[in-house]
């Protein structure tokens, strides 16, 4: 009211409160605004630094994750290959076991065969001896008794020739049976060796902490765990970055609005 | 001042200003080279860690390769055996077939013989029945029949044997062996390729390490140079300051107090013998031939930016008109509480609490800077000292001007934040269930429980975040809530398992020792002064307590609360003492460097809140999770092969730069803290 009385018509706007130095006040307001802008700039700078640092971190982690992924794929492939290899070795092991059994059975048969042939030869030779004796008797009888039929004599001669032939052939058979037997024994040895080695191969691949199977499985487990960790790390770092970026954005908005305010105030004050 | 003295003073100011600029340049060089060294170390340590990882990887690959080679040789042998077995088996089949056919032929021949004998028997049976021929023939017939039968049986066996031999699946085995061998070759190739790649990586990492090591050595050299330059510059400045500027020094004590000390002005000649001059009253310290011709000293606090324009005329003006803008020290009045007049080495020192200055002969008041503005912590100031000569002295030399010193080095009062204490980490598993924890962990858990830390909530948080460890520590925020104290946790890799010791370790020790040494030299004068002040104050306090000369002593001459100052000064002394214990970090690290660690490479700790009577109450305990994304201070992921020393940087995280400047960060003790591995 006092002010109104003091300035009845010169000023259209009614004043409240007491008079003050307008220029000083303007200056003070501008200064305060400038300080606010500086503070906002400081805040923006702080967040900017954080965002830059976190962006680097996220980029790093993305690199790590890609690497971890590649390693994981590689170790999985290796593990699968090892699995295939071990299956194959297992097949080899069981097949060679079967082959070895078959070979042993065949060998047993061969041994039996040789023995049997020997027996046949023995009885054959004895029979041939007896046949010779018969031939001698018949020849002697023929000399005493010409009535003995020529047919008989002729037949006995044929039988003698056949006996010779049978013995000869049997000896050939005996010989070849021993050849077969010896080669079978060799085969048993060879297949047996192959079998033993197949067993040893399978065992080396699968048994113990240092076996290929375990090493490949371990490598895969490690790669998988590492991938999981990188994934987590990236997720956390990305969340941090997003938060920092949001903070930066709001700080930037604040700075921009304060800057606009300051520019407008400056322009108005200096116009 | 006459023109002689003015000229002298100008020269002094110019010299000091030059020195000051030089010193600033050297200091920035020093800092820059310190940062370069830190980054070079970062490169080295990162390279070391990479090499370690590559070495481990190579070790794993070597194991795989070794096994693959071993399996490969077995497989190759097996393939050979299978091939041979197949060959032998083929031979057996042929031989056995031949044999069977021969047996069959023999058997046929024997049958024919049996037929012959049958015919013979028929004839003999018909013609010679009963004769000896008949008997013999009958015998032969029986024999031959048996033989023929046996021969037939044998031929059957031969057939079976031949069949069985043919049945042997040696070819399948060979095929299996070939397939296995092919796969094995494949695996070996992969294992070898992996091994080669890994060994190339190791070689590459080794050469990187060599390169970064060289760079680090260069950075070290540069740092050493900058270090020496900086301290040389410091020494030069101090020497000039001491010789030409009364050794004027301002030292911040707390956020609200600082210490100013300087040499008293001494007349170049002893006083002329009486009665040439009027006796000085009250008598100043006149011992032997020395004469201190100053009645009062005035201390002005000037903004650093204004130091070049502050002049004697301004000082004179302020002395008369600016009543709250100076601190007066004189002898003719009783000493105020915080004033320390030192009898040692002719120096004067005064603790100035700017909010409550007790100036000679005045009521306590708040001190303003020379612009009439309040003094603000976090801003840089310098001090000037003006000396008003005794009138007799002025008259003696016929010069009635007074003396204004050149500015001191700038100082800044800040609040030193409390360092984090009780720093320890607990594996997450033990937070849930401490039955398997060792004694130390149990004690730490008890400590937490005693402090009402909600361990279970934090454990749940840690599990949710997949964190392996949780770091706990105690840090007391400053009284002013505006400061917003934050805690950044860093994990310094202290043991890097490398085959050879860290090359630069001794060099770092040397640097640290050098720094301690030069710091000590630099601080020696100040320490001496403070210690002298303390003993002086203690003496006076004792005198007061015993009341020995109570009657004689003027009550006003005794400081009222000397013990406050003793505490203040002792605290400062403690702060100035450099930690000389053995270091566990293997690289150069300090608070300055902790401050430049980017936020991505440190973890912000959370202050622990509890509900008390339905209200949130914050404890002085903090925690930080150590999880999959946690890195060391260089930004490398934490590894199980390395031990880490946690370091906690306490800092102000206010949005207001002025508030941040008013606080000095602090770092926890990372040299003796327990280490951990991820």
Give your account of this protein's structure.
The complex is a heterodimer of chains A (271) and B (678). With 271 residues, chain A is mainly alpha-helical. In chain A, 90% of the residues lie in helices and 0% in strands. Chain A is built from four helices and no strands. The N terminus of chain A is likely disordered. Chain B is rod-shaped. In chain B, helix 1 packs antiparallel against helix 2. Chain B folds into four domains: 145 residues, Helix Hairpins (Orthogonal Bundle); 155 residues, Single Sheet (S-adenosyl-L-methionine-dependent methyltransferases); 164 residues, no CATH class; 60 residues. Helices cover 51% and strands 16% of the residues of chain B. Chain B has twelve helices and 19 strands. At the A-B interface, helix 2, helix 3 and helix 4 of A face helix 1, helix 2 and helix 3 of B.
Features:
heterodimer; A: 271 residues; mainly alpha; Helix Hairpins; 4 helices; disordered N terminus; B: 678 residues; alpha+beta; S-adenosyl-L-methionine-dependent methyltransferases; 4 domains; 5-stranded antiparallel sheet; 4-stranded antiparallel sheet; 12 helices; 19 strands
Task: Categorize the overall geometry of chain A.
Answer: rod-shaped
- Which fold name fills CATH's third level, the topology of the domain at 51-227 in chain A? Helix Hairpins
Distance between the termini of chain A: 32 Å
Class by SSE composition of chain B: alpha+beta
Helical fraction of chain A equals over 70%
Cα-based radius of gyration of chain A, to the nearest Å? 56 Å
Largest interface chains and counts: A-B, 103 and 92 residues
Oligomer description: heterodimer
- Please, how many helices of chain B? 12
How many β-strand stretches of chain A? 0
CATH architecture of the domain at 51-227 in chain A: Orthogonal Bundle
Write down the CATH class of the domain at 51-227 in chain A. Answer: Mainly Alpha
The average pLDDT of chain A is 86
Strand content of chain A: under 5%
**Rg measurement of chain B, Å:** 49 Å
Strand content of chain B: 15-25%
Provide a count of the helices of chain A: 4
Measured distance between first and last alpha carbons of chain B: 70 Å
* Low-pLDDT windows of residues of chain A: 1-10
């Amino acid at each position: 009211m006092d002010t109104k009385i003091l300035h009845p018509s010169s000023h259209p706007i009614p004043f409240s409160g007491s008079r003050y130095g307008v220029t000083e006040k303007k200056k003070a307001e501008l200064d305060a605004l400038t300080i606010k802008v500086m503070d906002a700039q400081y805040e923006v700078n702080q967040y900017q630094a954080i965002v830059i640092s976190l962006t680097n971190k996220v980029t790093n982690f993305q690199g790590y994750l890609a690497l971890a992924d590649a390693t994981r794929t590689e170790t999985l492939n290796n593990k699968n290959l090892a699995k295939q290899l071990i299956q194959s070795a297992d097949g080899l092991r069981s097949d060679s076991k079967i082959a070895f059994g078959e070979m042993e059975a065949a060998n047993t048969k061969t041994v039996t065969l040789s023995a049997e042939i020997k027996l046949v030869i023995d009885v054959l030779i004895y029979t041939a001896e007896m046949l010779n004796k018969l031939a001698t008797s018949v020849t002697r009888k023929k000399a005493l008794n010409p009535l003995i039929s020529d047919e008989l004599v002729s037949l006995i001669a044929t039988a003698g020739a056949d006996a010779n032939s049978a013995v000869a052939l049997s000896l050939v058979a005996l010989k070849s049976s021993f050849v077969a037997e010896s080669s079978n024994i060799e085969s048993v040895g060879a297949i047996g060796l192959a079998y033993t080695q197949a067993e040893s191969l399978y065992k080396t691949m699968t048994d113990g902490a240092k076996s290929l199977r375990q090493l490949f499985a371990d490598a895969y487990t490690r790669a998988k765990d590492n991938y999981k960790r990188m994934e987590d790390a990236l997720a956390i770092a990305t969340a941090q970055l997003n938060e920092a970026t949001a903070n930066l954005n709001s700080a930037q908005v604040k700075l921009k609005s304060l800057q606009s305010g300051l520019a407008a105030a400056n322009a108005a004050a200096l116009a | 001042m006459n023109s002689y003295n003015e000229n002298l003073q100008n020269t002094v100011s110019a010299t000091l200003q030059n020195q000051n600029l030089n010193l600033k340049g050297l200091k920035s060089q020093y800092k820059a080279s310190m940062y370069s060294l830190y980054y070079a170390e970062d490169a080295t340590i990162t390279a070391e860690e990479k090499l370690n990882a590559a070495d481990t990887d190579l070790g794993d690959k070597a194991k795989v390769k070794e096994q693959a080679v071993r399996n490969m040789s077995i497989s190759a042998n097996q393939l050979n055996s299978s091939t041979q077995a197949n060959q032998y088996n083929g031979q057996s089949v042929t031989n056995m077939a031949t044999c069977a056919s021969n047996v069959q032929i023999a058997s046929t021949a024997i049958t024919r013989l049996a037929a012959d004998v049958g015919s013979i028997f028929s004839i003999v049976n018909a013609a010679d029945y009963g004769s000896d021929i008949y008997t013999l023939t009958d015998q032969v017939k029986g024999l031959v029949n048996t033989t023929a039968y046996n021969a037939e049986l044998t031929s059957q066996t031969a057939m079976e044997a031949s069949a069985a031999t043919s049945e042997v699946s040696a070819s399948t085995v060979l095929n299996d062996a070939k397939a296995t061998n092919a796969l094995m070759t494949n695996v070996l190739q992969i294992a070898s390729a992996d091994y080669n790649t890994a060994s190339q990586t190791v070689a590459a990492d080794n050469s990187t390490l060599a390169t970064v090591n060289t760079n680090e050595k260069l950075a070290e050299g540069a740092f050493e140079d900058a270090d020496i330059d900086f301290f040389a510059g410091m020494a030069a400045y101090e020497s000039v300051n001491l010789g030409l500027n009364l050794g004027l020094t301002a030292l911040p004590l707390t956020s609200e107090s600082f210490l100013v000390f300087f040499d008293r002005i001494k007349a170049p000649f002893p006083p002329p013998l009486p009665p040439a001059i009027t006796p000085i009253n009250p008598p100043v310290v006149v011992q032997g031939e020395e004469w201190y011709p100053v009645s009062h000293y005035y201390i002005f606090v000037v903004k650093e930016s204004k130091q070049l324009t502050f002049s004697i005329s301004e000082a004179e003006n302020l002395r008369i008109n600016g009543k709250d803008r100076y601190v007066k020290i004189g002898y003719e009045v009783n000493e105020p509480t915080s004033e320390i007049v030192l009898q040692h080495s002719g120096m004067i020192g005064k603790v100035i609490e700017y909010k409550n200055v007790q100036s000679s002969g005045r009521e306590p008041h708040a001190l303003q800077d020379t612009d009439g503005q309040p003094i603000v912590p976090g801003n840089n100031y310098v001090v000037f000292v003006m000396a008003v000569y005794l009138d007799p002295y002025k008259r003696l030399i016929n010069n009635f001007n007074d003396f204004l010193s050149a500015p001191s080095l700038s100082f800044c009062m800040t609040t030193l934040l409390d360092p984090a204490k009780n720093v320890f980490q607990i594996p997450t598993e033990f937070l849930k269930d401490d039955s398997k924890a060792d004694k130390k962990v149990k004690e730490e858990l008890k400590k937490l429980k005693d402090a009402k830390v909600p361990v279970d909530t934090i454990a749940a948080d840690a599990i949710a975040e997949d964190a392996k460890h949780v770091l706990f520590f105690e840090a007391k925020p400053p009284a002013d809530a505006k400061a917003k104290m934050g805690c950044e946790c860093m994990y310094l890799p202290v043991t890097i398992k490398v085959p050879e010791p860290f090359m630069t370790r001794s060099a770092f020790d040397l640097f640290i020792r050098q720094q301690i040494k030069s710091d000590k030299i630099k601080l020696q004068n100040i320490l001496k002064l403070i210690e002298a002040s303390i003993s002086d104050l203690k003496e006076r306090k004792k005198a007061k307590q015993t009341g020995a000369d109570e009657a004689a002593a003027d009550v006003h001459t005794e400081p009222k609360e000397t013990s406050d100052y003793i505490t203040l000064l002792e605290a400062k002394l403690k702060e100035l003492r450099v930690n000389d214990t053995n270091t566990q970090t293997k690289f150069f690290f300090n608070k300055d460097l902790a401050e430049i660690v980017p936020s991505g490479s440190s973890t912000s700790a959370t202050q622990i809140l509890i509900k008390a009577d339905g209200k949130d109450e914050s404890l002085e305990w903090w925690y930080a999770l150590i999880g999959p994304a946690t890195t060391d201070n260089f930004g490398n992921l934490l590894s199980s092969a390395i031990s880490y020393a946690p370091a906690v940087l306490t800092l102000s995280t206010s949005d207001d730069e002025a508030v941040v400047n008013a606080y000095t960060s602090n770092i926890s003790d990372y040299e003796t803290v327990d280490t951990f591995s991820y």
